[in-house]
Amino acid sequence: MTTPEPVNTVNLDQYGDEALPWSAVVERLESGTTSGQDIFTVLGTVMPDGGPHAAPVGATWIDSAWYVVSAFQCRKLRFARHMTASLRRRVPHRLSAAAQGRIDRVLPLYVHVYALVMIVGEATTTVSVPPSEVFDFVLDLNRYRQADHKIGRVGAMHRTGDTGTVRFSGRIRGLPGPAGTYPFKLSASRLQFGSPVAGAARWFLNFEGTFDCQETENGTVVTHREVFEFKRPWRWLAEPVLRRWLETDTGAEMVRFKDLLDADRNSSNAAPA
């Protein structure tokens, strides 16, 4: 694998020495990993209000990238979804390495580290409607359940501006599941659902569902992720049965999602003025 080079380098040396080449830093990072040394690492992220947040983390250097692990509920993981961060690590030979940039991805890394706990489905498609229509379609759960067959009976929705709650029951492999009230929040490019705050479902699982939209010349690219964490004692029963199905169902859901949205757009274009 080709080692990526930093976009720029800041030399913090106070004694007139030149900055170390990046290859020397990589060599020390790799030597720390292979030697099994316990190396202190701090992750810096940005809170929703723009303030800084820093926390020590478990991290390792693999294939020219830093991998950081975190529990699902930790603030540093939630703040990392803003996609920018800095990382500072003490490396062997009394040196310290610091990096700042964009986070490549959060949830897929989390899946690998917590494979026995989390179930994640992710899929991407491109549709011919703007993000606002994508979100309107998803929030109309009676329509969206045609794409997402995991949604059962739909209840009341309460919305105030860009936040709200919606009540619905789940369907697991065609069987009815517990109902819950799920919070959601909306921005210009993202719709995010959280864990149930009321109803029987809150005793069964933690959940996060996101729809991220990016407008391109070819249409709106929609990336949908679903994260399930079943609670004890249901975890040991549900995961062996549902893991593979849940991980693959998101892909089928997005195929139906695209077909339904494009069909709506085509019928609107064909309607007489």
Give me a quick take on this structure.
Helices cover 28% and strands 39% of the residues. The protein has helices at 22-35, 75-80, 107-113, 131-139, 141-144, 234-270, and strands at 41-46, 52-56, 58-62, 65-69, 84-91, 95-102, 119-127, 151-160, 163-172, 175-186, 190-193, 205-216, 219-230.
Explain what the structure shows.
By secondary structure, this protein is an alpha+beta fold. It has helices spanning 22-35, 75-80, 107-113, 131-139, 141-144, 234-270, and strands spanning 41-46, 52-56, 58-62, 65-69, 84-91, 95-102, 119-127, 151-160, 163-172, 175-186, 190-193, 205-216, 219-230. It has 2 domains: 22-104, Electron Transport, Fmn-binding Protein, Chain A (Pnp Oxidase, Chain A), CATH 2.30.110.10; 111-270, Alpha-D-Glucose-1,6-Bisphosphate, Chain A, domain 4 (2-Layer Sandwich), CATH 3.30.530. The chain is 28% helix and 39% strand. The strands form 3 sheets. It has a 7-stranded antiparallel beta sheet with strand order 7-13-12-11-10-9-8, sandwiched between helices. It is globular and about 70 Å long. 21% of the residues are buried. The model is unreliable at 104-116 (pLDDT under 50).
